[in-house]
Amino acid sequence: MSAGGLSRWRTMSRALRHPNFRLFFMGQGISLIGTWMQMIATSWLVYRLTNSAYWLGMSSFASRIPSVVLTPLAGVLVDRFNRQRIVIAAQVLAAVQAAILAALCLTHTVQVWHVIALGALLGVANAFDVPARQSFIVHLVEDRDDLSNAIALNSSMFNSARLIGPAVAGALTAAFGEGICFLLNALSYIAVIWALLAMKLPPQESKGNAGVPVLQGLAEGCRYAWSMQPIRILIGLIALASLMGTPYMVLLPKYAKEFLHSGPKGFGWLMGASGVGALCGAIYLAGRQSVVGLERLIPRATVAFSLGLIGLSFSRSFGLSWLLMVVTGGSMMVQMASCNTMLQAIVDDDKRGRVMSLYALSFMGTAPLGGLMAGQLGDRFGVPHTILFGGVVTLCVALVFLSQMTAFSAKVRPMFVNKGILRDTIAEEQSGG
Hints:
The chain has 18 helices and no strands. Helix 4 (about 85-105) runs antiparallel to helix 5, helix 5 runs antiparallel to helix 14 and helix 10 packs across helix 11. By secondary structure, the protein is mainly alpha-helical. It has one domain (about 15-200, about 210-430): Up-down Bundle (Growth Hormone, Chain: A). It has helices at about 5-10, 20-50, 55-80, 85-105, 110-135, 145-175, 180-200, 215-225, 230-245, 250-260, 265-285, 295-315, 320-345, 350-365, 365-380, 385-405, 405-420, 425-430. The longest helix is centred in the N-terminal third of the chain and has 32 residues, at about 20-50.
C-alpha cells in the first residue's frame, strides 16, 4: 500500500485503535448480519402467508410502534442508568424473540399473528437498545476527536451487514425457508453480548437527572431539544424523510415479485444493493476529518434519496432498479449518519440519551406510521404510485432545507466552536465538504 493509501486508511479506521470500540465493532458486526437476515425473512414470510401489501405494512407498524411510546421514556433511563447494561438487556430480549420465531417456523406452526406479536416484542427491545447504543458509543473512544469516525465506522459496519445479510437471507429462504434465518440471527447475538461483557469501561459518572421523576426528565429533554434550533431542524428532517421516504422498503417484496418478476433471491439482491450504496456512503463519511461541512451534505443527500425513489417508481428493469437502490441506500445512510454525527457533536452529555432517543424516535417512530400508510396506499393505488408520492414529498422537504442552508450553517458553526471540535476547518472548506 502506498504512503498516501496507508495514511487514508489510518484516517478512516482511527477509532479502531480504542480497544472497547474494537470489541463493539466486531461483536455488533456479526450480530447485525443476523439482524438483516431476519428483517428480509420476516418480510418474505408475511408476504408468503398473506400475499398482501396491507399486512406487510401492518408487520412493519407492529415492530416499530413500541418505539413511539417507549423510546422517549427509554432516553430518560439511558441518561440515568448504566448504558452498557441496558444494551446487554436489550440484546438478550432480541435473541429470545428470534429464537421463538425460529421455533415456530421450523415446526411449521407460524401464523401471521405470531409474526405481528413477536415483532412488537422486538420493537420493545429496540426502543431501549437504539438510544442506549447511540449514547454508549461516545464512551468507547477515549479521544473525542475520534467520535465522528466511530459513528461513521458504526454506520459502515451496519451497512456491510446490510450488504451481506439480505443476499444470504434470500438464498437461504429460497432453499430452506425463513426459519433458518431466524435461528442464525438468534445465535448471532452471542457475539455482541460477549463483546459487551468483555469491555473494560471506567465507572459512569452520576447522572444529572437522577432522582427526577421520569416524566419531568422527559419534559426537560424535550425542552432542551426544542430550544436548540439545529437539533430541532435535524430531528424534524429525519422524521419527515422517514415518514414519507423509507416506507418504500415495506413494499419491496410486492414490487420485486409483481413488477420485476423476481422471487426472494431478487428481493434479497435489491436489499443488498441498498447495502452497497450505504456502505459506500459510510466509507466516504469515515474518511472525513471533521463534522464541518455536514450541514451542506445533509440536504444534498436528501435530494439524491428522493430522486432515487422517484426513479424507482418508474423502473421495470431489475438492473436499473438495482442501481437506483444503490442510490437510495447510499444517500439515505449519508443523511441519517450525518444527522447523527452532528447531534452527537453538539449535544450536552447529560442530555445525550434523551436527545438520541428523540433522534431514534424520529425514524423508528415515524417509519411504522409511514409503513402502515404505504401498505394501505399500495393496495389501493399501486406500489409504484405510492413510492412516487413518497419521493416527491421527500424532495420538497429537501428543497426547503436547501433554501435555509446558509442560516442553518450560521447557527451550527458557533456550537462547534463551543464544543472545541472545529478543527481542520480550512482544509474541509477547501475540499468542498
